[in-house]
Design a protein that fits this description.
This protein has 280 residues and is an alpha/beta fold. It has 10 helices and 10 strands. It has a 5-stranded parallel beta sheet, sandwiched between helices. Strands 7-6-10-9-8 form a 5-stranded antiparallel beta sheet. The radius of gyration is 35 Å and the shape is elongated.
Length: 280
């Protein structure tokens, strides 16, 4: 497997200053040298570097101004900049760091120290990019799972071990008429004015044994929505443990329309069965 070499752009109006350092860096990195800020921008546009080495004392446009312009361009804002300077005054270092520079290398350049500083910065930037990519992946994953939960047809209700509702999805809002902000933080019986027996039994098991082993099959219940309309649901209940904290998950489906249809079909069948067909 080929390891991609990091790209370093060195900007110095007197590249002889970087001759010794450059000969060492070119063994480990892909190195480009520009003799002015304008040339540095052009090279960066053609091949964005992973790190910029920037001399402070340059004619026409000094290193501070070059740094300002790089940091003002969204394409280059995140590229780390290490200043190379003969100035050792504290104010000069503060100025550079306040402009967004990552580090300083002083002249005369100590090759070994400079190598360590450059490697440390590149390793840190590589790690930050990995973290950022992983964070973006996690955000996409959370969004995808949130979307999946939001469009699912079954109500999903999570109740913490203190017996308060901690999660209430969109389907639960649609089925029961309560929005999540109304339901979360309440006990289940406060919404429906009666205990749901399997949930009550699981909490009793949790309080008695410290864990939940049981799981319910499909159970039917008749409840009142927020608008006091009577509905029939089928639901299952299970217990899960997250980081030592028990949760009860209730998954419910609105069966009202189906049950009503089944009822009317039975009534029609009953009427037809009882009807006497007259003989000729």
């Amino acid at each position: 497997m080929t390891v991609q070499r990091s790209k370093i752009l060195a900007i110095d109006d007197m590249p002889i200053n970087l001759l010794t350092l450059g000969s060492v860096l070119s063994i480990e990195f892909d190195l480009q040298i520009a003799t002015s800020g304008a040339m540095g921008f052009k090279l960066a546009e053609e091949t964005p570097p992973d790190l910029i080495l920037l001399d402070v004392m340059m004619p026409v446009m000094d290193g501070y101004e070059v740094c300002r312009q790089f940091k003002a361009d969204p394409r280059f804002q995140k590229i780390p900049i290490i200043f190379i300077t003969a100035m050792v005054e504290l104010n000069a270092e503060i100025t550079g760091l306040s402009l967004g520079a990552t580090d300083y290398i002083t002249k005369p350049i100590n090759i070994e120290i400079a190598q360590y500083r450059i490697r440390n910065v590149l390793e840190r930037e590589h790690l930050l990019k990995e973290i950022e990519a992983y964070r973006d992946y996690l955000e996409e994953l959370v969004q995808a799972r949130t979307l999946a939960i939001s469009v699912i047809q079954d109500a999903i209700i999570m109740i913490n071990q203190n017996e308060y509702i901690s999660f209430w999805n969109n389907a639960a809002e649609r089925i029961f008429g309560y929005i999540s902000s109304e339901a979360i933080g309440l006990e289940l019986h406060e919404l429906f004015s009666l205990p749901i027996v399997p949930v009550h039994n699981m909490f009793h098991e949790l309080h008695e044994t410290g864990k939940i082993k049981s799981i319910t099959g499909i159970t039917e219940a008749h409840l009142l929505r927020k608008d006091r309309k009577k509905i029939t649901i089928e639901f299952s209940v299970s217990g899960v443990c997250f980081n030592g904290q028990w949760k009860i998950i209730l998954v419910a489906r609105d069966m009202t329309e189906r049950k009503n249809t089944e009822y009317y079909i039975m009534k029609v069948r009953d009427i037809l069965h009882k009807t006497t067909i007259p003989k000729n």
